User: Fold this.
Amino acid sequence: MTPLVALRSSLARWRTFAGRSRRSEFWWSVLAALWVVVAALGLDQLLFGGGTTRIDWSPRFPVTGLALLALACPLMALGWRRMQDTGRPGWLALMPLAVGVPVNAALLSGWVQTGRGVAYMMLTVIELAVLAVTILLLARPSAPGANRYGPNPKEVGV
Assistant:
């Protein structure tokens, strides 16, 4: 399976959280999505100039933002199905998001500048640990045979 074929397959099932997805489909789709985001960043650089590394709400990267919005739901559904393929509940794929939102909200709210930098660092370490565990779970091999989420996609030919 090539990256673009995998991404096309995951985009075609963008709202399907039921069932299972193969490991190769997941990782090739992630690679293709990374290429799309890098290309969008390059296009933003060409069209809108240098931008800034400062965090604010100004639209400095509109093409990248649109690309990320377009890829968000298909990749969440794909991660959900991939987690189910390993025999675990799909919501585990969203744990980095559930931990990352409060950490980034603390950063954007200025909480870090009010003397709570150590707490923010601890939250960041927790977020990275949750992300690492999630990646390890997504990298696990498929559960053999059918599980409660459906038949093995390798055996069905999906």
